[in-house]
Amino acid sequence: MATKAVNPETRRSKLERKERAILDAARAVFVEHGFDGARVSEIARRAQIGEGTIYSYYESKAELMLAVLQQFWDGLTREAEAVMASVAADGFFDRLRALAQYHLNILILNADFINLSFALRRNNSEVSVSRDHLRQYVAVFDRLFLRGQDRGELRQDAVLWQARDIFYGSLEYSGRSIEMTLDSDHKVREQAPVVEQMVALFRSHYGVIDKADAKDSSMFDQLAQKLDQLSDKFDALSERLS
Amino acid sequence: MATKAVNPETRRSKLERKERAILDAARAVFVEHGFDGARVSEIARRAQIGEGTIYSYYESKAELMLAVLQQFWDGLTREAEAVMASVAADGFFDRLRALAQYHLNILILNADFINLSFALRRNNSEVSVSRDHLRQYVAVFDRLFLRGQDRGELRQDAVLWQARDIFYGSLEYSGRSIEMTLDSDHKVREQAPVVEQMVALFRSHYGVIDKADAKDSSMFDQLAQKLDQLSDKFDALSERLS
DNA sequence: GGATATACCGAGTGCTATTCAATTAGCCTT
DNA sequence: AAGGCTAATTGAATAGCACTCGGTATATCC
Q1: Residue A121 has what pLDDT?
Q2: What confidence category does residue A217 fall into, taking pLDDT thresholds of 50, 70 and 90?
């Protein structure tokens, strides 16, 4: 009956299309209802396949969730890299600010999702997969930090793992506080101080100390000089106008 | 048939005893199997009551879990206070070290439990209860920090919420890293550097600045003065133009 | 000691993830 | 193009769980 002329899908392409459909549907349903609240039947319906079919792609609901989470973390990694690349200035602290902003925002928007990444660990033996994807994500920070050290913007004796723990840990905690405390209208507004404080902390704790006080004072002198010049220009302008 | 002479339990005491039995059994089973893995029937069996009886004490499995978590966090708060009180020296940094050590250890030992505190939030509307108990726990840190400021050990311009986020956030993240990376033999060993780095961070970032920096401030004063002058000129000009 | 209220029980209910025997669809050989 | 073969798909059946409810035991009151 069916004409083969309409370029029927190959076996492979069909599988890939269905897998994507399942993953997309699953993600939507998980986000909407959480893990326990999500019905496998609803995922199947949205992906337009039979309920049993899901189980020929994934062992269980938990493993399906894991696949969704992998996709999620991979996306974050890619986006985080993109955000960093899009910062005009290539200094460490500007990029750190951009990364912190991005990360905090993600944390607040996907809080439940991220919690599930860790909460799911107990049920399933396939932990390592999720762990690797998480590692890839934090590696974005690691690269930034090491580059900052190479460029001489950060102290050589700074401890990477501590910096990483502070960065991601504090942001996660802050994100949870913001998410728990405020209504959705205020969420965006309250993010700025968190990010700024984080950058300030990194600047003061991991930023290079200027070689000597001499340099410090010379920098102050430079600023003072610039201000004086500005003041002079101002006077000139002022005079000309009168 | 039953003799009343054997000092039968009063109605109230019996209820309390059963409630405790349920809570203890539930805690054990939840720790052992996680939330989803825990069978209500097993909790009932261990508490030596009928399965249905549990539901005359708690609305649902989730609410029972919540009660267990409350007990858990209350215990932590009490123990944390005790740990702080037991430190011989009453200086801020020694107490901070003790609190960090205690907290990190708890995090590693009860990782799943703590994850559940946050993961459970979605399912149940009775969130606020858990939130209050959590607040009480972090208040231990807040009191310590404020006292440190009062005693002049910490900078007056330090931001409490940021310090809190860094303290609990970093430790939580570190704890998870330790828990995920290492086998149980190494867990204890790797805690020390985390705690020490945390204390060092607080010392350098929030500790009072040595008087020697007077020079710095005088330079700042100079700059500020120049800016003020410039600002005045600006105002004057501005006024003249209008 | 009987009436009444309260606590307790566990067999049933309803809902869901998961399985599996039957069916369909793509692919390959001739 | 037909037929056979394999892999993919299906949804009705299964199994396991949280939770309910009618009935029973137990304490309290008069």
Answers
A1: 66
A2: low
